[in-house]
Design goal:
This protein has helices at about 5-10, 15-20, 30-50, 60-70, 75-90, 95-120, 120-135, 140-160, 165-180, 190-225, 230-240, 250-255, 260-270, 275-290, 295-305, 310-325, 330-340, 345-355, 375-385. It is mainly α. Among the domains are: about 60-165, no CATH class; about 215-355. Helix 10 (about 190-225) runs parallel beside helix 14 (about 275-290), helix 13 (about 260-270) packs across helix 14 (about 275-290) and helix 14 (about 275-290) crosses helix 16 (about 310-325).
Length: about 400
């Protein structure tokens, strides 16, 4: 074996053993021809294999650009619809395009509803939902949107009627909001707004309770000055009222104590006309007037003479101040105005006769003495009252 054969045999032992088995030993030229033939065969196999492969489609740059433009047109539903039409023309019958078109129609519905909500055109939005339900059926998204807009309409209707003058009206108007507003509960802004309405209603109820207390106080003023027997019953009702004001308690206490606190009552004469303490002060000082000292009466006159009374007792108190100063004509005029408004108790009528007709001191004289009133004195005084405008 030559040198070249030994080198080849060392590299390809399998082929060498095959040749030795058949008793054939090839020279270098024979192996070169065999190697060339193998290379050619391999080339032909690769050529035929390549011809059987499917050719890759050309890159569709237009379709890619249309898809990019469609996803970029999220805030322009009209442009998005046009781009979908172009994509549908490029790929007729493509299921994804059909699905995208339905999704785009739904997105446009939501886009329209959001716009109407921002513009507070809630009634138009509700009508639009009704139309979409007729076209597409009761889709869950449409039903949810309908629930939301019904709740928003209830809120808007409540706001349009504000401010409320009565708490009962506010509570009634808020009922549809509470009934339909559960869908808005996840929104923090709705919870804050609802708490504000509850606080407004609470304050409105408190104000109404104070007003009711003041009305009952004026009713008590009328009953007391007329001598009605049910004045005590009304006072007990007032004590049971839970009036949310710091003045209600002292006012009720001032009505029930046997003797009023003169300094406190005198100070309350200049309080606000809306304060119950002012009304109670007029009632109690008028009731206590006959037992007050001249100094106390003068103190009342200096504070209250030119004030505007808030109660019937306050008007009677000013009449007593005028009579005490001898201003009888003005006192009689105001007495007649008071009598037109309300009936007076028999004690007050008797006091009025004593002051304006005949002083009670005249009846202390003997009937044969000049100071004793005669029948003519009664007629003259009555004539004076009748002629007073």
């Amino acid at each position: 074996m030559c040198h070249r054969d030994r080198e080849f045999a060392s590299g390809f032992p399998v082929f060498i053993r095959m040749k030795q088995q058949h008793g054939q030993v090839s020279n270098q030229r024979s192996w070169k021809r065999a190697g060339g033939w193998l290379c050619g065969l391999t080339g032909l196999l690769l050529l035929f294999t390549g011809c059987n492969r499917v050719k890759a489609p050309d890159y569709d740059r237009l379709q890619y650009q249309l898809l990019r433009d469609y996803f970029a047109a999220t805030n322009d539903p009209v442009q998005a619809e046009k781009l979908l039409d172009k994509l549908a023309d490029l790929s007729p019958g493509q299921p994804l395009i059909t699905l995208a078109r339905k999704q785009e129609q739904f997105r446009q519905v939501m886009f329209t509803l959001n716009r109407l909500a921002r513009e507070r055109r809630l009634e138009e939005a509700r009508n639009f939902i009704t139309l979409m339900k007729a076209q597409h059926g009761p889709l869950p998204e449409l039903l949810q949107a309908e629930t939301i807009f019904n709740a928003l309409a209830a809120v808007e209707n409540y706001r349009k009627q504000q401010p409320y003058s009565r708490s009962a009206d506010a509570v009634k108007a808020l009922e549809p909001v509470l009934r339909q507003g559960s869908v808005l509960n996840p929104e923090p802004a709705f919870g804050i707004w609802l708490q504000a309405q509850d606080e407004d209603i609470r304050q409105l109820k408190a104000r109404e309770l104070i007003q009711e207390f003041n009305r009952k106080l004026l009713d008590l003023d009328r009953l007391l000055i007329s001598g009605a027997p049910n004045a005590g019953t009304l006072l007990q009702e007032m004590k049971k009222m839970n009036v949310p004001t710091a003045e209600a308690g002292p006012a009720l206490q001032g009505l029930t104590v046997p003797v009023p606190d003169f300094p406190a009552s005198l100070e309350a004469l200049t309080a606000s006309p809306a304060s119950p303490l002012r009304t109670v002060a007029e009632i109690r000082l008028c009731q206590a007037w006959p037992e007050l000292t001249r100094a106390q009466q003068d103190a009342i006159a200096s504070r209250f003479e030119k004030a505007e009374p808030v109660s019937r007792h306050g008007k009677l108190l000013q009449i007593r101040i005028l009579a005490r100063r001898g201003q009888m004509a003005e006192a009689i005029i105001r007495s007649q105005d008071l009598i037109r408004q309300t009936a007076l108790s028999k004690e007050l009528v008797s006091e009025g006769l004593t002051v304006f007709v005949l002083p009670k001191e005249q009846f202390l004289a003997r009937n044969w003495l000049t100071p004793f009133p005669t029948f003519t004195d009664f007629l003259l005084r009555l004539e004076q009252l009748r002629n007073t405008p």
